Structures are given as C-alpha cells and as structure tokens.
Amino acid sequence: MSEYVIYDPATGYVRAQGSGRIHLIEPTDFSSTAQTLVYTGNRDGKVYVSNDEVMNCTGMSLITTNTPLIADFTDEVIISGVPEGAQVEWPDGQTDIVTDGEIRFSVDLPGTYTFRFTAVPYLDKEITVEAIAAT
Questions:
Q1: Are residues 75 and 32 in the same domain?
Q2: What CA–CA distance (Å, rounded) separates 65 from 127?
Q3: Same domain, 67 and 129
Q4: What is the pTM of this model?
Q5: Taking the chain, what is the end-to-end CA distance rounded to the nearest angstrom?
C-alpha cells in the first residue's frame, strides 16, 4: 500500500493525502501546479513537503493579549507570534497575509469572534476572542 500526498511545490502545502491507489487521483484537480509524492513511513496528522520529504507540521505559538475585549471600538486585542506569511481568516471571512508577526482587532459589538491562522509548516490554529459590552 502506498502513502501519498498531493502538494504545491512552491509552498509545500499539502492539498490531499492518503494511502492506496493513487492512479485515480489527478493532481491538477487540486491546483495547476500540484504534484504527487509517494513516500514510505507513517505520518500522523497534518503534514507538509520540504525538499521532497513529507514532514509533520508543528504547533503555532500565538500569544493573545487584552482579553476579554471591551466592545467600544477603542479597546483592541493583539494576537502576536504569527509566522510571517501566515494567512489569517478574520471573523467576517476576509483573509489576509500577515507580514509583521501580529494582528490587531477592535469591535463595537459584543460577541464571540474567531480567527483562523494557516501557515506551512505549522498546524492550523484558531483563536476565539470574546468582546464584552462597555459599561
């Protein structure tokens, strides 16, 4: 039985992984530049490819300061330790690339806000921030 990944060579990002018959899968169904890599050895969880080697992703160490957040559009939460080039998905669904290691967030409506971070070679990470009503 073969283990395989379908990945983007430029980033190492794995789009699919599995075992068994790979001739049924077409890499270009995932991306025009995607490639298939067959490997031996068992990998648990999320993986990435570096120098034609399948590697396990590691945890992302993010630091969140100033929580809970006061929903007054002045108070802000800072999430730092974000790897350069990581993609952040904001609570409204917008995505951005982080270039300076942190994001800042303020809001005027109480509620729960979730941020999703994705970056090779790290495990995806979610941070949830609670915004409470100003008194």
A1: no
A2: 11
A3: yes
A4: 0.82
A5: 62
Q: Are 129 and 67 found together in one domain? A: yes
What are the pLDDT digits (tens) for 1-34?
Answer: 678 899 999 999 998 888 877 666 777 778 888 9
Q: What percent of the chain has pLDDT over 70?
A: 96
Same domain, 100 and 39: no
Q: Which residues are within 8 A (CB) of 120 and not within 5 positions of it... i.e. 6 or more apart?
A: 11, 12, 13, 48, 57
- Indicate the residue among 17, 35, 56 that finishes a domain: 56
**In the predicted structure, residue 80 carries a pLDDT above the cut 90:** yes
The number of beta carbons lying within 10 Å of the beta carbon of residue 84 is 10
Under a CB-based contact definition with an 8 Å cutoff, are residues 100 and 34 in contact? no
Q: For residue 62, give every residue at least 6 positions away whose Cβ sits within 8 Å of its Cβ, in sequence order, or none.
A: 79, 80, 81, 82, 117, 125, 127
Question: Which residue range forms the structural domain that includes residue 46?
Answer: 3-56
Cα 117 to its chain centre, rounded Å, is 4
